[in-house]
Structures are given as C-alpha cells and as structure tokens.
Amino acid sequence: MSVGVSIAKPGTAQADFRVCNATQDLVGVSIGYRARAGWITEGWWAIEGSTCKTLIEGPLESRYYYLYAEDGVRGGRWDGPVSMCIAELQFKITGVNDCYARGFQKAGFREYDTGNQTNWMVQLVDDPESEATSASEQPFITQGDGQ
After folding, report:
1. 139 exposure class (CB count in 10 Å sphere: 0-12, 13-18, 19+)
2. By the 8 A CB rule, do 85 and 92 touch?
3. Which is it for strands 38-47 and 132-138: parallel, antiparallel or unpaired?
4. How would you write the pLDDT of the chain (147 residues) with one tens digit per residue?
5. Which segments of the chain are extended strands (E)?
6. What pTM did the predictor assign?
C-alpha cells in the first residue's frame, strides 16, 4: 500500500474529492454518497494510468463517501462491503435498494470517512506482494494563495 500526502499547487481548486490511479492500467471508477434526494451512485470515470481525476468539485458536503473501481485491463477491483447500485454504462442512480429489480447491477463499495475534511484523495495502487489491488486515502491538502 502506498501512502503519501498530495499538495495542490497555488491557484488550483481549493476543495474536491479526487481519485488517482497509480497503476499503469485504465481504471473505471464510481462513487456513492448521501444527498438530500437520498443515496446517489455515479459512474463511470475513466482514469488513465498514473493520472488523477476530480469526481466531486468544491467542498465536500458529506462525511462519508463510497468508492468502487475496476481495472479495465486486468479485471482487478477496488471494492468493499457496502452494497450500492451501478450500471454498465455511464450512470447516476438514486437509491441503493432493489438494484436488480430496477435494471441495475450491485457492487460492493468501500467507505471513506473524510472526517469532515473539505478535500479528499484516494489513490488506487497495485499491491505487488499479493498481486491484488488496494487503495490508500488521505486528506487532500491544499496550499493556496488565498483564492
């Protein structure tokens, strides 16, 4: 597992939820969160190897976010125990119950407790010792010029 602190350059966004793909493969990412309308899952963000994408722009409004990702080349997954709905193509789904009955698939999402931080970053990494995949998380620390 690789853990580090990422620092944004001055003038970049002051708050967001980012996912960085530290593998060499294309990864598809989906996110879940609680909104006023209820539970929402959204996907897919295609993140090339060794790049990052912002999934949520602006200050984070929830404490908990949920992530599910698939390696588009080797088929590995970053998942967890929290069941939420996904679709095969780009989606935004309200609700986490009756996924199959509503024509969706179900996937296990991993919970991230942001501790009410306004920034957060998850780094998807290969675990070379077990040939499995893992994710590291940390507050996304920004240094800015007051913008």
Report:
1. middle
2. no
3. unpaired
4. 333 333 333 344 458 999 999 999 999 999 999 998 899 999 999 999 999 999 999 988 889 999 999 998 888 899 999 999 999 999 999 999 999 999 999 999 999 999 988 899 999 998 644 333 455 554 433 333 232
5. 7-8, 16-21, 27-35, 38-47, 51-57, 64-71, 77-78, 82-86, 91-94, 105-113, 120-127, 132-138, 141-142
6. 0.78
Q: Which of 82, 74, 73, 103 is nearest to 30 (CA)?
A: 82
Rounded distance, CA 48 to CA 72, Å? 10
Tell me how far apart the alpha carbons of residues 26 and 23 are, in angstroms, rounded to a whole number: 8
In this structure, how many other beta carbons lie within 10 angstroms of the beta carbon of residue 87? 17
What is the pLDDT at residue 112?
A: 95
Handedness of CA 113, 115, 121, 123 (dihedral sign): negative
29, 47 Cβ separation under 8 angstroms: yes
Among 118, 142, 133, 91, smallest CA distance to 2 is for: 133
The β-bridge relationship of strands 120-127 and 16-21 is parallel
